[in-house]
Design goal:
single chain; alpha/beta; TIM Barrel; Non-ribosomal Peptide Synthetase Peptidyl Carrier Protein, Chain A; eight-stranded parallel beta sheet; two-stranded antiparallel sheet; 14 helices; globular; FMN
Length: 366
């Protein structure tokens, strides 16, 4: 299928998403520090928080406790900003949605119907568990839409609960009929977790089941070229980048440039990537203090090193750091400073030099 290119901006209610590239909400990762990193590089048309437990929010509010840690920064940071919430009770969701609109002035309230983690699905009967009960989804969405108006409400789903119970087309119709302003679809089932490949053909087929709201595709977008391919090949209005951006907050700016037909900014050098990671660490420490901030930064540091030569060795050492001094020392000693391609090129050059030396020696001996 040939698609319009470059893809136009699209609307979620009255909000214009331009460029049509969204940052996925990811539990444990997309906190205010990470969101600031993404903003500094640019390229994301809409940024999202981690998913917030609606029931936990209500409990904290009733007990006059501090609001959820996952709402850190939300009140002050730039807009547009989406906050994702989850639960299975329509009244609880509506209550929290209204608070987010009135107190935090968020741009979008997103509902998580896609999380496959057992603690959310089997224990709390939320997230992707609700895909088996579209009627319940309708109740949650419709009540939240009323509570949040005029702020738009969106939904994020998977293809279904398992490969033999794919019901994304039916669910998409329910989402729109309930009043949601956009639908995001991750191209795997809940049972798949993150194994295998996202099925973008299935995502694209959903568009025919929607009348007016935009469709956003999500899954396996780890390069600007894949983002371009998604827009050129599949019937989607927007794309959402998830895990691939965790150690590469510059990925959005690269993808946005590719969509504009401009030269794609190169990957930052390894020293620049290390500097980016240290800036990220400073932001985390500023909010959580040295000890907690250092512990929290461990997983981000592993993301920044992923795919580089020596990443495993670095992860082994950084996984146990608990102070700033330790973190700085481990980064200085072990953070990968050569790419796999550079190591390969060095080895090939060494082998070529050894071959030439052997040939020269053989020629002299003969």
């Amino acid at each position: 299928m040939s698609r319009p290119f470059p893809p136009p901006a699209f609307r979620i209610g009255d909000l214009v998403v331009d460029p049509p590239i969204l940052q996925a909400p990811m539990a444990g990762f997309t906190n205010a520090a990470f969101r600031q990193m993404v903003r500094e590089y640019g390229g994301a048309g809409l940024i999202a928080t981690e998913m917030v437990n609606a029931r936990g929010f209500v409990w904290m509010d009733e007990n006059e406790a501090e609001h959820p840690e996952r709402l850190w920064g939300v009140a002050e940071e730039p807009r547009p900003l989406a906050v994702q919430i989850w639960d299975n009770d329509p009244e609880t969701m509506a209550k929290v949605g209204r608070r987010l609109v009135e107190e935090y002035q968020v741009s979008v309230v997103d509902i998580n119907f896609g999380c496959p983690v057992r603690q959310v699905t089997e224990k709390a009967h939320s997230g992707s568990y609700l895909l088996r009960t579209p009627g319940r989804m309708f109740e949650i969405i419709s009540q939240l839409v009323k509570a949040c108006a005029p702020t738009p409400v969106t939904a994020k789903i998977r293809l279904g609960c398992s490969p033999d119970s794919v019901n994304c087309n039916e669910v998409a119709r329910v989402v729109e009929e309930a009043g949601a302003a956009a639908l995001t679809v991750h191209g795997r089932t809940a049972k798949d977790m993150f194994r295998g490949h996202a099925d973008w053909d299935r995502i694209s087929e959903i568009k025919a089941h929607l009348r007016n709201i935009p469709l956003i595709g999500n899954g396996d977008l780890d390069s600007p070229e894949k983002v371009v391919h998604a827009f050129k090949t599949y019937d989607v209005d927007g794309v959402m980048i998830a895990r691939a951006c965790l150690g590469r907050p510059w990925l959005f700016s690269q993808a946005a440039a590719a969509l504009r037909g401009q030269p794609i900014p190169p990957e930052p050098s390894l020293p620049e990537q290390r500097q980016c990671m240290m800036h990220h660490y400073d932001l985390v420490k500023e909010r959580f203090g040295e000890e907690k901030g250092t512990i929290l930064m461990r997983k981000y540091a592993c993301c920044y090193a992923q795919g580089k030569y020596g990443a495993r060795h670095f992860r082994t050492h950084v996984a146990n750091v608990s102070s700033a001094d330790e973190f700085y020392r481990i980064v200085e000693e072990y953070f990968p400073m050569k790419t796999k391609e550079e190591i390969r090129a060095e080895r090939e050059a060494e082998q070529a030099a050894e071959t030439r030396a052997a040939e020269t020696l053989n020629a002299e001996l003969s």
